[in-house]
Amino acid sequence: MVAYNSHFDAAFFDHLFRSASKTWRELYYYFILDIPSMAWGLGLQDLNSTWIMDRYQIEDEPHLAEQHTGITGAMVNVRIYRALLQYRQDLVAAVPGT
């Protein structure tokens, strides 16, 4: 699972699966990766900046309460995650001899 606030999202999975007397860990037992940690690992320390969104032209999620849903938040997380993967590729490509 990859999420911006992974503990928040995992709590929803936990509640859903517990209601069926299950655990989501049966399906997914590996690490949970949060986007801020991934960005930090790539050297992006200003996690409140819109730099990555501007550089990779990421459309933000709606900021109106009626339009802001779990899906819109998840989709912006996917776009940021993909941009971070591209940023990593761009960093590697900029290293001479790679």
Automatic annotation (TrEMBL):
GO terms for molecular function: nucleic acid binding. It comes from marine metagenome. InterPro entries: RNaseH-like_sf, RNaseH_sf. This is Exonuclease domain-containing protein.
